[in-house]
Amino acid sequence: MIDRIQIKNIDLTLVAFLLLNSILGVIVIYSCSHYLPGNYHLKQIFWIVISFSVLILFISIDYKFLMAYSFYFYLIFIALLVWILLFGKLVAGTRSWIKFPFFQIQPSELMKVAVILLLARIFAEYRKEHVIWSNFFSCCFLVAVPVFLICLQPDLGTAVTYIPILLASFVLAGLNRKIFIFLLIFALLFGIGGWTFGLKDYQKKRLTTLIFPSHDPLGAGYHIQQSKIAIGSGGFLGKGYKKGTQSQLRFLPARHTDFIFSVIGEEFGFIGVVIFLSCYLLLLSRLFLSVKESRDRAGIYIIFLAAMMITSQFLINILMILGLLPIVGIPLPLLSYGGSSLLTTYLSVSLVLNVKMRRFVNV
Amino acid sequence: MKNNNIYEELSLIQGRALKIHIAVVVLFVLLILIFWKIQILDYKKYFKLSESNRTRQVILPHPRGLIKDRNDVILADNKASFKASIIRENCKNLDESYQKISRLLNLEKEVLIERIKKYESLPLFQPIVVKDNLSFEDVSRIESRKLEMPELVLQLEPKRSYPFGRFAAHVLGYLQELSPEDIKSSLYSKRRLGELIGKAGIEKQYDSSLVGTDGQVIEIVDSLGRRKGEIERKEYIQGKNLKLTLDFALQKKAEDLLEGKEGAVVVLDVKTGEILALASYPDFDPNKFINRFTPEEWLDLINRPEFPLENRVIRGLYAPGSIFKLTIAIASLDSGSINERTSYYCSGKTRIYGHPFACWFKGGHGAVSLYNGIKNSCNIYFYQLGRKLGIEEIHRYAKELGFGTKTRVDLPGEKEGLVPNPQWKQKVRNAPWYPGETISISIGQGPLLVTPLQIAYHTALIANKGTMISPHLLKSNEIHSGREGKRGSMAKKHSINIKRSVFEKVIKGMWKVVNEGGTGRAAKIYGYDICGKTGSTQIVSVETAEKMKEKNQEIKTHSWFTGFGPKDDPKVVVTVLVEYGGMGGATSAPLARDLFDLYRKRYD
Predict the structure, then answer these.
(1) What digits encode the pLDDT tens for the residues B503-519?
(2) Rounded Cα gap, residues B348 and B368, in angstroms
(3) Taking CB atoms and an 8 Å limit, are B32 and A277 in contact across chains?
(4) CATH second-level architecture of B248-603?
(5) Strand duo B74-86 + B128-132: pairing
(6) ipTM above 0.95, yes or no
(7) Per the CB < 8 Å rule, is A285 touching B6?
(8) Minimum-distance CB partner of A38 among B10, B27, B189
(9) Where are the domains of chain B?
């Protein structure tokens, strides 16, 4: 399945960037959770080891093979999502976890990898310059099914992260003006409809506080406010590792998960933010530039969708902690604590490695 | 390579992807500008906000669930108590503060510093408990110095208390403070440092039900530690209440009877497996654990030679002595190696495999049938049965009848005892099995080891004529009340694979033990058909015992009695063990009688 030339063609720089960002994550997780029971940093290291092993396993399987079976993966994960809705345990108000003796996993995260493969497969033989309607609707439908199931859990944050993946596939396949206008109108209608029927009260409140953050400083605006205070009070050099008062005194919510970048801002300052952002951009650019090295259409789709998945989550998370987007639970890929998100990110990077290392083989 | 026509022309979509890449890079630059604005331009504003942003987390400790007996007598309660904690962050001068606090609370300064050292790793703003169970004087002294000493705070907390002191201590168990090592384990991840957790008994077994959830208040405080408001408040949730199967009166009686002796008592409901009384003596006062021992008190408790912390009912291992003759009788009848008319002659001593073996009754019992063999506990009779059975059969039946395996009672730390066989001996002692050992085993001596609870379970098996029950202490958990019912019905379905008629014959023998002047006659109650069996186990080896007997030295033996009643519709099992109590019939049987008597008065 794997030969010497392929091993030689593994993009070690990309692997190095991936690990670099993972380790930076562990360092920050330790800072904001060392005083809590639970050893989050050790668990994160454990997950990195697991994810890395899975990555190695995954690149040994040809992506064409994975793509050929993508529809089955997709169905399996749909079945899993339905199963946890029916039989899953309620953890923190949602049914999104499958529990194992020593860990738990969110199928809603891993589903993204299946969706990437599936979209790549659909567009693999697509030679038109623009998306046509039939294709547009079938893709929308295929993504809408898991999104709907995840909304029912309810886990709005994870559901939202599917939309950039879908849009990215259309952007690559080419959007003509008609479909673009249709998307705009649809988004508008959906927004109004969702506001009146779909959103829960606390979610509405989050949206209003986005526009008026000081409206309710001890309520829903509180988290945004505290996050901004953390970042702003970090200043140029930061307060120092493990010395951030906002995070150590627990003003920040979800310090080691969704709000981890606020801790970075507070403890490492502007300098630290620039360094962390640069490290991340190195990884993302490496992913995007890999597009040039694929010799088939499917490969390009896989690389681009994987890159867009990580990029969009990263941007949404950063804009959220800066108070520029409403708070939805989206972790920062690689940096936030959490096994499922980490594993999903590693899997998508492994797909990119997979395409790149086989670029001279698949004719 | 560009025009190589092996490859598809992909520059269109590659170009689109790269355009998006450029957009992402631009976005990152924008992000850096936003951070620049917040972190550099607005730095002063946010820094001030973060400085005035100080909180204090105040825990509202939850009370543990109550533990009650079967008639709702509260055995483990909670009472309010004050404790003093120090917040290091608020100390202007640590050393001076320690000095002042040690004077104020009458604590030695070294003790105080040592205690704070233990929790050094906690963040500075978290209070560390330095003294609890404060007296009213302490409370008022601290309260009056509230302003000048912001580092010392008072907290009210509900505290476990056992209103009856030592009562049922071995069932209830005790609590101990969660140590910094414990808290790293995932079992206690939701617990607080300094919180008390169940370390033995029911308190440990059902710890997760008994604990509730602490409430908490996050207060905003100014730089002097003065309260400015609340960010968040969560009320505590009390743990679930547990109802035990214990009967207060029977338990009390059992403990009174054991007072001053070393031993164990179990009273078991034959039909349901509910434990009505479970006493082990010497005992301890679980209240002592709550109020933090002095190191001397603790060392004394764990180092006393009679081990007051050990629950003898489930952890004491003893030879069953003559009680094991019931197992031999059942095995012999069931395997067909004898019938109830088989008899042997007892002259007081005999030789088997070339070794002399004696009966406990020097004069000999004469011709002994099965019923009289049980009634008079004739050793010679059972030597013969054991010899005929062989060790493998004895081993198999003993296992079937509840020995050598845990009864799976709902108490932590139960021991499984030991039923030896040749493989065991080869493995553990690396020596072959001698036929003579089988003879010792036939009267319950040798390496055979059982717990008093196993004896009670074994007796219930006989009383039920082979139907199994599972001994348990939890009557119901007020939230999941269905549990006990499930347990009872599940247990009822299983029966061991021995004929009912075998049990009936053995029961007839056991009836004679008590009612026809047998070894257990001291347990007899007029009008109540008790069936029982006594046992006296030699603590020294058989050979030494023989020699001591010849020299007319007194041999101290453990004294057993186990029995059930009434004969025709068995309801209750009573098992008594008194260490160094002498003959079973003399010491333990009268105690059992008193318990049967009380049971009859309460339940008939």
Answers:
(1) 999 999 999 999 998 89
(2) 12
(3) yes
(4) 3-Layer(aba) Sandwich (3.40)
(5) antiparallel
(6) no
(7) no
(8) B189
(9) 56-244, 248-603
